[in-house]
Write a sequence for this structure.
């Protein structure tokens, strides 16, 4: 069974044709770009088409309803090697609770399993060349932008799970200039069959940055408010257990010339080795917008009392000086 | 959970948190360190932030954020005083000249209670055209200086014992006397070349005039505090001028004060106390045009809703005022013959008919270099015969006016750091505010003409704006320094807007410069509105 590998390689080789002339969509000049790059090596390696996948290590970043499906406890951390002195780090913990129900009905007790997931995305840019108005260097600057999220989900029936994530954003842009904001994600997951899941997610409801630059700009400082774009996702995943393959597709619409298709696949090639591939950001509204193909893998090893694994993903980044390398570890216990 | 289980988690957390430690690194100082000066340019003033311009015969004096600059050949060569023993790293806040003596007031920024405040650092004067300078410390009061004798009155006076918010925004010179408007320090005069200073008593907010024979009960006090609850906006002084008859005019946050007896008695003109009043009581600048015997004042809105931003002018010594250029925030005045130039947020407005109509110069472009003056705030203007000088926060401009108003060749004096190699690029100012300035992106084409594309990206390298695409650049056109050589800089500009023309949100953006078939050059900028 070589098809998944062939598909992955095909996706990757398509990269050159997926990078047309740089195209503009309004979402590019809206806040929170770091939070729309994906989460961790597994998700990014599958083209971020993750909102309907209920197997493996799950992150509520993609869909707050997912945590109810987590097996055991999952801890994951990723570090990204990005060009232009950008940093992008991920930290996540997901846990499903086995609450004892008062119900004597065993079946009912099993389906009502709540889940919890929390995590951090930390992004930043270093070595920014501070200059005054005649080009004299004033020193290097750096920024730190973070999303902290906490989500709860519950399976209300065997087929339906719903989750809510609270997201706290904190951005330190310049000395004395910081901002923060709170937003929400709402997600649902519906099991269409034993093999197929359907997801619906709304992201970044109410997320915004409010700025007050008077501490630096003095009289010319001003108060501004920048709203994050609200994303509307519909995802579909299909599991083929006989071939150990999960495939997924997803549509995410922002309007503003940014309506994306995503595809991802994961193949458990042998034992604990997983290969992945995907395409993110196939823009249906703007053909010039460059899509982002991705490949990756994970390898797990059973140790005493827990399973440890490493994750890797690569995304060739158009218009940058090099691609993205995301390296992660995860622990299941 | 077992220790063995916890260990990898803790280790990972530590590794992760190490990566998170990218907090803001604050520059040690926003002032340029003297040792960092690589080139004390004699072709431009050393700073592009021009606060004041003064012309005396063939000499032009320019006050900047990096001290004083002087040219005696109409800008072909400059002497910069930044870093000298006399001026150190101080900024210039005001200039004045009379009878062979040039005066310059200096100041700098200080951090106090999380705020950046201006602090006066005194005055300098030269009697030999800037060859040698005498230093005068910023006038402050002794803690016990709490009483002033004014005619028949002993008035309480708040001792201004510090130089914070006490700096000379303006200087006026009358025979034998130097006058400074020093904001919280009030109006002060010296009759011994700055060795000693006397505080000048102006009317309180509630009185329209004072004279020594009046019986008065008020405190000379710009702000309320422990000294007393009285707070007089009219004791916060921002501008001072003298007319041909040596009458004095002091502009404050509470109106315009006129004295015809050498600063003893004062009459106040406000938006409220005249049938034909000034537009607003916050008077940030004034000028006197000897050709038309007219007084010009930048009268900003102060406290009352009926006040408004405008230029107020008087042809009868302040008895009545007309207003013009409404809603413009004017910062200063310059004159060319009968013409008045009001330097404002939106340009150097010029009128040749006493403010009835105003004309802007249009885009100011240096034909020789191709560099244009970007959207900026205009702070100063002056003239020498047919030469007009305009000072902005983004450079100094000179017009050799050969035709009608604003007609002629412009030259821009634009100081930038040279590039160290043709592979270097930098953008400035960084951070920049698209509201008030444009980002200059300086790079090299190696001294040759080539097609250049500059694009702006967000954190995810998504396109925000194509600044120029396959535009021909290089050689002498758009070159900043001299003629073609490999480090000759080319400058292009980003206005901080996206492809839809909207100003982008605060954040970090990346620029990519593609020059011919060579490797692209990247850089990062912070947008801070």
């Amino acid at each position: 069974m070589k098809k998944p590998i062939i598909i992955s390689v095909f996706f990757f080789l398509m990269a050159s044709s997926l990078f047309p002339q740089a195209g503009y969509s309004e979402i590019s000049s809206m806040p929170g770009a770091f939070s729309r790059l994906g989460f961790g090596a597994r998700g990014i390696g599958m083209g971020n088409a993750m909102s309907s996948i209920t197997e493996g290590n799950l992150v509520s970043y993609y869909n707050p309803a997912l945590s109810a499906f987590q097996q055991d406890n999952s801890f994951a951390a990723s570090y990204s090697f990005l060009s232009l002195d950008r940093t992008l780090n991920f930290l996540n913990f997901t846990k499903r609770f086995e609450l004892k129900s008062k119900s004597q009905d065993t079946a009912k007790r099993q389906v009502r399993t709540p889940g919890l997931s929390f995590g951090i995305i930390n992004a930043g840019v270093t070595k920014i060349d501070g200059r005054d108005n005649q080009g004299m260097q004033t020193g290097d600057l750096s920024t730190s932008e973070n999303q902290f999220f906490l989500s709860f989900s519950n399976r209300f029936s065997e087929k339906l799970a719903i989750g809510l994530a609270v997201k706290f954003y904190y951005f330190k842009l310049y000395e004395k200039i910081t901002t923060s904001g709170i937003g929400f994600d709402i997600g649902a997951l519906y099991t269409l069959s034993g093999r197929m899941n359907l997801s619906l997610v709304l992201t970044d409801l109410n997320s915004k940055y409010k700025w007050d630059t008077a501490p630096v700009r003095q009289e010319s400082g001003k108060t501004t408010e920048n709203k994050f774009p609200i994303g509307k996702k519909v995802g579909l995943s299909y599991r083929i257990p006989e071939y150990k393959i999960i495939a997924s597709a997803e549509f995410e619409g922002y309007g503003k010339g940014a309506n994306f298709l995503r595809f991802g696949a994961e193949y458990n090639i042998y034992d604990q080795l997983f290969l992945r591939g995907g395409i993110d950001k196939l823009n249906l509204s703007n053909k010039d917008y460059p899509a982002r193909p991705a490949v990756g893998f994970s390898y797990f090893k059973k140790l005493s009392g827990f399973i440890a694994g490493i994750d890797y993903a690569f995304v060739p980044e158009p218009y940058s000086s090099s691609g993205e390398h995301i390296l992660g570890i995860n622990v299941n216990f | 959970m077992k220790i063995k289980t916890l260990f990898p988690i803790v280790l990972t957390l530590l590794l992760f948190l190490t990566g998170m430690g990218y907090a803001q690194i604050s520059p040690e100082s926003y002032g340029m360190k003297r040792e960092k000066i690589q080139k004390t340019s004699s072709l431009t003033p050393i700073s592009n932030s021009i606060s004041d311009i003064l012309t005396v015969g063939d000499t032009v004096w320019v006050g900047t954020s990096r001290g004083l600059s002087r040219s005696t050949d109409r800008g072909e060569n400059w002497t910069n005083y930044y870093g000298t023993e006399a001026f150190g790293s101080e900024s210039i806040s005001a200039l004045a000249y009379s009878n062979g003596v040039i005066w310059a007031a200096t100041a700098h920024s200080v951090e106090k209670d999380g705020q950046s405040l201006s602090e006066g650092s005194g005055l300098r004067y030269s009697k030999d055209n800037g060859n040698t300078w005498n230093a005068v410390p910023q006038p402050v009061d002794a803690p016990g200086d709490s009483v002033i004798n004014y005619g028949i009155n002993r008035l309480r006076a708040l001792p201004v014992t510090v130089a914070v918010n006490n700096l000379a925004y303006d200087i006026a010179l009358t025979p034998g006397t130097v006058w400074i408007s020093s904001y919280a320090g009030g109006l002060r005069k010296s009759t011994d070349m700055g060795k000693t200073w006397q505080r000048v008593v102006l009317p309180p907010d509630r009185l329209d005039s004072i004279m020594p024979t009046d019986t008065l009960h008020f405190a000379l006090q710009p702000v309320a505090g422990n000294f007393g609850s009285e707070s007089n906006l009219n004791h916060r002084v921002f501008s001072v001028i003298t007319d041909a008859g040596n009458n004095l005019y002091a502009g404050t946050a509470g109106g315009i004060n006129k004295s015809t007896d050498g600063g003893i008695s004062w009459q106040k003109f406000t938006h409220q106390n005249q049938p034909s009043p000034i537009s607003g009581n916050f008077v940030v600048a004034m000028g006197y045009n000897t050709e038309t015997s007219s007084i010009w004042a930048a009268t900003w809105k102060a406290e009352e809703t009926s006040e408004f931003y405008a230029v107020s002018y008087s042809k009868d010594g302040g008895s009545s005022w007309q207003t013009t250029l409404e809603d413009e925030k004017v910062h200063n005045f310059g004159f060319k013959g009968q013409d008045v130039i009001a330097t404002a947020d939106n340009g150097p407005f010029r009128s040749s008919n006493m403010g009835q109509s105003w004309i802007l110069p249009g885009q100011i472009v240096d034909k020789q270099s191709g560099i244009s003056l970007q959207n900026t705030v205009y702070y100063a203007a002056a003239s020498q015969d047919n030469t007009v000088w305009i000072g902005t926060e983004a450079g100094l401009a000179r017009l050799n006016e050969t035709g009608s108003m604003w007609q002629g060749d412009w030259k821009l004096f634009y100081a930038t750091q040279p590039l160290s190699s043709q592979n270097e690029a930098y953008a400035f100012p960084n951070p920049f505010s698209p509201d008030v300035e444009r980002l200059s992106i300086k790079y090299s084409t190696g001294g040759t003409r080539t097609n250049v594309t500059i694009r702006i990206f967000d954190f995810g390298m998504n396109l925000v704006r194509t600044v120029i695409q396959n535009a021909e650049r290089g050689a002498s056109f758009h070159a900043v320094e001299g003629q073609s050589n490999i480090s000759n800089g080319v400058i292009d500009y980003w206005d901080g807007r996206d492809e839809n023309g909207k100003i982008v949100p605060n954040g970090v953006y990346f620029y990519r410069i593609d020059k011919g078939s060579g490797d692209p050059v990247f850089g990062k900028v912070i947008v801070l509105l």
Q: What stands out?
A: DSSP finds one helix and 38 strands in chain B. The mean pLDDT of chain B is 89.
